[in-house]
Amino acid sequence: MSTLGSLDALDDVVSSSLDRLTELAARLFQSDVAFVSLIETDRQRMIARQGLDIAEMRIEHSICAHTIRSANGMVVPDLRSDPRFAGNPLVVEPPHLRFYAGAPLVAKNGIAIGALCVMDPEIRMFSDDDRRQLQTLAIAVMNELELRVLTGRRDPVSGLPNRHQFSLDYAAWSVRAPGRTCFAMLVDVLDLPRANEAGQVLGMAPLEALIRRAGARLKAALEGIGEVYHVGVTRFAFVLELPDRDAAERLVTELHGRLTRPMLAAAVPMSPLFHAGLCEVELGIHTADDALRRMLIGLHCAHSTGTPFCWYSASRDAGLKRGYRLATDAERGLLNNEFHLVYQPRYRALDLMPVGAEVLLRWRHPELGAVSPAEFIPVFERTALMEVVTNWVLDHALRQLAQWRRDGLSLTLSINLSPRDVARTGMADRLIGCINMHGLACHDVEIEITEGEWLRADSPPGEQLKLLAAAGVRIAVDDFGSGYSNFGYLTNLPISTIKLDKSMIDDLSTDSRAQLKVRAVISLAHGLGYHTVAEGAETPAQVALLQAYGCDEIQGFALSRPISATDLAALQTVPYVPA
């Protein structure tokens, strides 16, 4: 691939250096007129000129448009005698020019973008030596144009062409070879969290030196194969013509070996990381933005899976687009009543009477149909939508609980909050105020939080939980046993309930080790003063074992699926009866 993109969309680049070159051409060839023109789709622009008043003309009147089709340029001793140009405005109107000589301005990617021309009102001849000199001047003009266009299009750290230049060059390749399949690769030499950490510890100089050296290694490895572009802080992209995907993988594996070798950066020994995203692109079909986006999808897959490289995945792409759509549609969905709440009963293990319920959010999208909370909740948690959705759930759930209280029902309601919800400043005061506003007592409500490293007593979330517990709101740790599980940190927090994750319950009736583990967790939780709830019980055998182990409450499809508020109210006075 080439190193410079199409220049047919240059801004006005008239400069003293181009003026000097056109003046030199006029003097050298003793011509009345000399100019530098750029050929565009519908016009010709004279961006530097001597002896000519007009700055542009329509493309059908452009003599230079014929010049750029010839590698060696074009000479017309008498324009009036050439049928192509006899009626040209420059010929039949002032300044009544007769002679023309032009040399194409050819970019490094092989595309001619304009011409350096000399013209005269007299019929003239042009020798081979004159042609060579005009071509030499055209090269000088092209060099000046390249210098101008690359200003602001090279990364200041690596000195390599930047993302804007990548887009220009990609457009040029698409013009030259539409339909050709190529392989685009995006390499990250240092993931951003590590880069930020290195910058804080070492300062920017060693970090920039590492990035610069990594770019130099890539450039050396691809010398004669393709151009390297610095498209992000620590990311480099290139597009190559290769036989197949196997060849692309062999190349990226070789680059992985080269780039991960230790290097000195400002006298500091550092080991670059390596992740790459790969994709196939069809020139003329996929744009530069398409290529960058597809490479980025592969790169993030490589980061998330901890592998050196990943290919672009159409299904992953579709999932990302769907997630983005869910994020953009959510607020409208709240206004249009697309969301609703259901309630999964929690049964007292002793007599299998329903004593509470967990609030669950459901979304029926008008076009996508029923969307699972497992899909839309993570999307909301990554955006500012989570606060809006949480406020909606709290308002509707507490309103329903207040109605149950007026109807004489004594159910306890358990509401999930995300880490972002709990970490929000003033969250405890707002929730307590909302409970009071609905005429409820704080002990009517339980808040479920997911365990994790974020959950510490001295953290902002920990402080909010203390305020809630002090007011009487019960705090439950959800998904206990699914990963981070640690009773140690829980003892420093005002936790009242431990909810055993479904993964602990799944094999309970068939696996003796699972039975030992569940029994031990329940016993230890009781010893520490925690109330226990087992979620995900799906069989009568699991329910019976949880009852035998002394679990306080049981929740799961074996007892009840999530149901409406009306069905839950009817269920409260009816114990579970095994089938």
- Measured between the Cα atoms of the first and last residue, the distance is 71 Å
Low-confidence stretches at least 5 residues in length (pLDDT < 50)?
Answer: 1-14
Name the overall outline. Answer: elongated
Overall number of strands:
22
Radius of gyration: 36 Å
Instruction: Give the averaged pLDDT, no decimals.
Output: 87
How would you characterize the largest beta sheet?
8 strands, mixed, barrel
Count of DSSP helices?
A: 20
Helix fraction bin: 40-55%
What is the subunit arrangement here? single chain
Descriptive overview:
The chain is α/β, with parallel strands linked by helices and 579 residues long. The protein contains 20 helices and 22 strands. The strands form 4 sheets. It has an 8-stranded mixed β-barrel with strand order 14-15-17-18-19-20-21-22, surrounded by 5 helices. α9 (288-305) links the parallel β12 and β13 (309-311). The model is unreliable at 1-14 (pLDDT under 50).
